[in-house]
Each structure stands twice: as structure tokens, then as C-alpha cells.
Design goal:
The chain is built from five helices and five strands; from the N terminus they run βαβαβαβαβα. With 121 residues, the protein is an alpha/beta fold. It has one domain: Rossmann fold. Strands 2-1-3-4-5 form a five-stranded parallel beta sheet, with helices on both faces. β3, α3 and β4 form a beta-alpha-beta unit. The longest helix is centred in the N-terminal third of the chain and has 13 residues. It is globular, with a radius of gyration of 13 Å.
Length: 121
């Protein structure tokens, strides 16, 4: 499985990358902003995208998820964010992510979602 981590906190992104690689992900891409994430989504066949809602730049995680739905219908998305207000909830209800995890979350929580949805062995 190919994974994209869209997270502007470097330490969080690196930790997630190591978790996925140690659990058998084929390849893991990282993007700290929406523009980079959009380019990866257009060019790489992905199995799952982990998204923060608030990112540096003008494109947020919600916009990236909408783009993902348009370009890669078969790709799963999981939000991992500490930002979750009413406006975000409304947008997320339209995106219908596989899961919404609140920071800080444990590796066990994330892996549980992936195993439950048969994305990792």
C-alpha cells in the first residue's frame, strides 16, 4: 500500500512515516502543504491518505480530501487533527472520511482503523 501523509508538523509526519514503513507500507510520501499534496495525489496511486485539517498555505486538508475524492475514488482518507469546529464537521460529513482521529492519538488507534478496514495486514 502507498501512503501519503499530509501534515505540516514535521515530527508528527516523520513518526507516522516510520509507523507505516514498519507495518509494511510499500512507499510513504509526505507533504507539509496542500500544493505538494495535490501534486502527489495527481501522480501516485495511493491506498490511504492521512490528513491534518489545518495546513500551511492556502489549501487545507478538507480541500485536499475533496480533490482526492474527485481524482482517486478508491483511495481512503483518515483525518488526524486537533482542529475540529462546526464548519469542519459540516465539510467532513460531505467528504465521509474513513475515520477522524483527534491529536494526539496513539499508534494503536490509527493501526486499529487501518486493520479494521483491511488496509494493513
Amino acid at each position: 500500500m502507498n501512503v501519503l501523509i499530509v501534515e505540516d508538523e514535521w515530527i508528527v509526519s516523520e513518526e507516522l512515516k516510520e509507523v507505516f514503513l514498519s507495518r509494511g507500507a510499500k512507499q510513504v510520501w509526505q507533504a507539509a502543504d496542500g500544493s505538494t499534496a495535490s501534486n502527489v495525489i495527481k501522480s501516485i496511486q495511493l491506498g490511504v491518505v492521512i490528513l491534518d485539517i489545518v495546513l500551511e498555505g492556502t489549501i487545507d486538508g478538507l480541500e485536499i480530501a475533496n480533490k482526492l475524492l474527485t481524482l482517486r475514488e478508491d483511495c481512503s482518507n483518515i483525518f488526524l487533527s486537533s482542529y475540529y469546529d462546526q464548519k469542519a464537521r459540516e465539510k467532513l460529513s460531505l467528504i465521509k472520511p474513513m475515520a477522524i482521529l483527534h491529536k494526539p492519538c496513539t499508534t494503536m488507534e490509527l493501526m486499529g482503523i487501518l486493520h479494521q478496514n483491511q488496509l494493513l495486514a
